[in-house]
Amino acid sequence: MLPRMSGIDVCRKIRASDDTPVIMVSARNEEIDAVVALEVGADDYVSKPYRVRELIARMRTVLRRAGGGGTARDEAPSSVLEVGDIVLDRDRHEVTIAGELVQLPLKEFQLLALLMENAGIVVTRQTLIDRVWGYDYVGDTKTLDVHIKRLRAKVEPTPDTPECIVTIRGLGYKLST
Predict the structure, then answer these.
(1) N or C: the chain end with fewer CB closer than 10 Å?
(2) pLDDT at position 76, please?
């Protein structure tokens, strides 16, 4: 429940100013509630209790229709990323470090790309897992640690004392610039 206004009123206010995608999640499960929400501009309506995977799929669908694709940026990410001696080319699926070609499996490539997009900024463990393995990933978080260790072995001059991909305890990882 919202404290000062109804979800319908919030949706009306949002629709009055922009096209932000709106999915209403409500404890109300009457047909009329869903119809009213959709009529005032909601993109979707989900009644509680709901299944998390279904909600995530609905969110992806709404973002896809809105043209957001789940990214916060308006422009497509650059095909080539450069941070220090590391150059990552998404189109060619190539990584070069100090001019030398380095082969990376897909997950390591995706991790490195995400860290490079956010160079100098801490990327949380959960963000890395969500963006690389997907929001519905239910496996062990140690999988991330194993992939980071393998990535460091290929990227770092001395993987035992990492200077490039730094662990920020309790938060995640950061690619040093």
Answers:
(1) N
(2) 53
